[in-house]
Amino acid sequence: MVNDSIIPPEAILNPYTPLAFLPPEFANNYEIIRYMHVATLMAYTWDWLMSMPEEYAIARDVGITAPNIAYFLSRVGTFGSCLGTFLIIVPIENCEIIKYIESGFAEISVPATSLLFFFRLKAVYRHSRIIIAIFGIFWLAIAGLSISIMLSLTVGE
């Protein structure tokens, strides 16, 4: 019985292709994931570039407020996380530092985005202190868990 998972190098037309030594189904799935990361980064970049004039006008007119700071931290954190995820699929020497940077941006993005939700909830339920307190505790839990996830991060090959 022949083992299908081992491909001899002389059977490969271009042995310098990164996915040439992987089984075809694994290489196909990996390629689809890479395309999805590129598409996500490009869509997010396009969205941010198209909304920058309005965001600048809002920041100029309203000024520096806590929701604006949370919004821009969420934008920068999400963009950095998408960029870090995109760079993970690029074959580079030291991928550990990129994974830590990507996790750092995710650490900024997740609490900032959930803080935006908390600000919206606070505006809708401004007369209900109980709901605001409960969701404030939820936001603190999200921020704390986000920090603990980052501190427990280990990167392998």
Automatic annotation (TrEMBL):
Entry's transmembrane regions: 69-91, 97-118, 130-153
Q: Where is the DUF6533 domain?
A: 35-79
Its keywords, alphabetically, are: Membrane, Transmembrane, Transmembrane helix
Q: Which InterPro entries match?
A: DUF6533 (IPR045340)
Q: Know the name of this protein?
A: DUF6533 domain-containing protein
This protein's species is Piloderma croceum (strain F 1598)
